[in-house]
Structure formats: C-alpha cells, structure tokens
Amino acid sequence: MNHFDYRNGVLHAEDAPIAEIAAAVxxxxxxxxxxxxxxHYRVFEAAMPKGSLIAYAVKANGSLAVIRTLARLGAGADIxxxxxxxxxxxxxxxxxxxxxxxxxxxxxxxATALDAGIYQFNVESEPELDVLNEVAASKGMKAAIxxxxxxxxxxxxxxxxxxxxxENKFGIGWNRAKAAYAYAAKLPALKIxxxxxxxxxxxxDLAPFREAFLKVAQLVQDLRAAGHEISRVDLGGGLGxxxxxxxxxxxxxxxxxxxxxxxxxxxxxIMEPGRLITANAGVLVAEVIYVKKGDEKEFIxxxxxxxxxxxxxxxxxxxxxxxxRVRAGAQRRVYDVxxxxxxxxDLFARDRELPQLSAGDLVAILTAGAYGAxxxxxxxxxxxxxxxxxxxxxxxxxxxxxxxxxTIALERWPDWLR
Length: 418
Ligand code: LLP
What we know:
Layout: E1 4-7, E2 10-13, E3 16-17, H1 18-25, E4 29-33, H2 34-47, E5 53-57, H3 64-71, E6 76-79, H4 82-91, E7 98-100, H5 107-116, E8 120-123, H6 126-138, E9 143-150, E10 172-173, H7 177-185, E11 190-196, H8 206-225, E12 232-234, H9 251-262, E13 268-271, H10 275-278, E14 282-293, E15 298-302, H11 311-315, E16 321-323, E17 332-338, E18 347-355, E19 362-365, E20 387-391, E21 394-399, H12 404-409
Parallel strand pairs: 4-20, 5-6, 5-13, 6-7, 7-8, 8-9, 9-10, 9-11, 11-12, 12-13, 15-17
Antiparallel strand pairs: 1-2, 2-3, 4-14, 14-15, 14-19, 16-19, 17-18, 20-21
The site of ligand LLP has 20 residues, from helix 10 and helix 11.
C-alpha cells in the first residue's frame, strides 16, 4: 500500500501533483512519501512481538529526512559504516538504538561507534572479534556483541542479494559458530549479548526465514547450555516487497513465523527491515527526451539513467513505469525504456507495454525508494539526482541537485598539471 495515486489523470504523491514538483525541481528526481514511510513502519512494528527493536536498515535509503521521519516513530537503525552512523545520528536516531553490521568494519569505525555508545556490534568473523576487543580495551570499554551466523540457508532470491549461503562472504560459518562464541567469551573487552542472522534481501517466500530462524533458536539453546548469556536475537531484514503483480508475504505472516520460531526464547528481538519500509515510498521521476524508432525496437529515452537507478542493470530488477499524466484514449505500444548513459545495460525495461509517450512527457519509475538514490553515482559526469519529501500537500527538496561545478570544485590539480 502506498500513497502514489492518480487524481484527475495526474499522478500525485499524497496530495502533491508530481507534475507540479517536476516543474519546480526539474527532472530526474526522487520523490518520497511521508505517509507511506510512516504506514510501512507502523504496520511492520505492529506485526512484531512487543519490545522488539526495529532497526531500520539505513542502507536502503539514507536520506536524512527519511531517517528523521522514521526516528520520530521510534525507529532504531542498522548501519554498516561510520558514514551511516553519522547520518543516523544527524537524523535523530539515538545511538542506543543502533546496531552495527558489516563484514569489513575498520578500527576507526569501531572506535567512533563505541564512543557514540551504540547498542551492539554484529560481528562477522573471528579476526573482527580480536580487533574489536583491542579497540574496546584501549578505551577501557566493553563492546556488546552478537555474532552474525551464516546459517547456510538458500533465501531463493537473486544471487547478488543472497547472503546466508555457506559460499557467501557474510557471517561466521555455521560449523564454526560455537567455537567462535567460546573464543569471544574469553576476550575481556567483549560482552556477548546475542545471536544475529540475515539471509538476504527481496525474499518472497517465508520458508527460508523459518529455516534460518529455527536454526538460530537451536543455536541460542545450545549456547545458553554452554553458559553464554544470550538476551537478544537479531533476525536481520530481507522481507520482499511487490515490484510487480506478485504479492510477497505480508508483515503479519512474517511476524507469525518469527513468533513460532523464536518467540519462546525469552530474548529481545531485533529486526533490520530496509526495503520494506522505503521501497514503495519512493518513485524516480524522469522526462522523456526522445522517442526513437530502431530497426527492431522503439526506444523511450529518459533523462534518468542507470547512474540514478542501477537496480535493473545490476539485479535484472523489474520496476513498473507509469506516465505522470494519463491521456484519455492513448494507444498502447511496446517500448524499451532506456537512459542516456553510454552503456547497453542502461535499460529500465525491455519490451514494456506502455501508453504511447512523446518527448516532454513525464514518467514515474515505481518502487524506487529502496536502493535507488543511495546506489546512485555520477557516471558520465551526471550529477546526483535531487531528493524530494512530500507530506500531504507540502513538498521539500531535501537534497538539492548537485551541480557539475560543485563536483569540479572538489578535485585538485597535481603540481605538474597546474
Ligand atoms: N541487514 C543487513 C545486515 C543487510 O545486509 C541488509 C541488506 C538488510 C538488513 C536490509 O535488507 P532489506 O530488508 O532491505 O531486504 N541493493 C540490493 C539490496 C542489497 C541488500 C543489502 N543488505 C537491491 O537493490 O536489491
């Protein structure tokens, strides 16, 4: 459910006409809906056992305005870098609700997170245990840790976003888990508090979650029997969203699996949803630059490219594309919808049936609020697209369009080229 609807033939974000935003901001731009963000967060929170920490995976959408919108609802955050830590703190999420994931945390990042007073580190390897122990000891602190375990479960999602198989770089191998806990327990500046798992993203089947969570439940019991205090269980994120007509399981069904698998453990649960909160709360708005007839195909060439939204090129992702203004009686045609970037992979949709479009028309690429702007780049010297947040009838540019002059000013001449 989202708040992007047509009124009088014009796509609106809540009560704001997208054509009006485009006229004010120019294209391309990302447009997010506050009401959708709030709704997704609340529905997810309500489906989880009381007392759970909802640690929004900020990698999905790191806009400060989005972070603050969620902070005001009580969200915590799952971060994977010092940069994300600084962003969530700036957005108003207290450090005490922050969990730090990621396979490659550096000493300086650990130090910043310890100084900030984060809730827990999700440690992903034995060498990381040693380094975190050293960094915490050097500050006279104890770091609260969960070990991220790789349960060797196939999440049945795209290979590039699957994380819980033994072949993936993430987490501590299932067969090493107990030894890793025994090792961690001996390190004086670490305090074991929990177990963590995350098996992948855009998961549309509950069975892999159930399998992974049941494995975690068994592990928690074994670890407790071995004398470890396990008071928290972090289940990661990964619940999929509807990109097309298929409907993934809803948060309530996911919540039922959570309760069934780990509800009786008497532990605080932590969830790290990212996509579920932001994906359908955002669209990428673009203008048609040309309609080009090829020998085999007809191309819609947009002013947004793969540098703005890389998901179709990178994960073969499907994104629905709709006109911002509906023309009564428009013929339907089959197009390849592409961007201006000089790569054949700069293709948003192949053989897509759409109402006939002309140069100057606006389109919205839907479900672009997660892993859209955050994965943007300035390839082809294309400035990052602006971000706009809508609330009711109001809209605000929360990240202005970068100028090429700004990016040029960031560079320095070597002495020999001055
Ligand atoms: N927790 C951890 C440790 C993660 O690595 C991720 C996502 C999440 C939580 C949030 O997962 P979500 O609820 O959003 O599925 N760029 C890719 C997705 C990469 C996901 C990376 N990790 C895409 O556009 O599909």
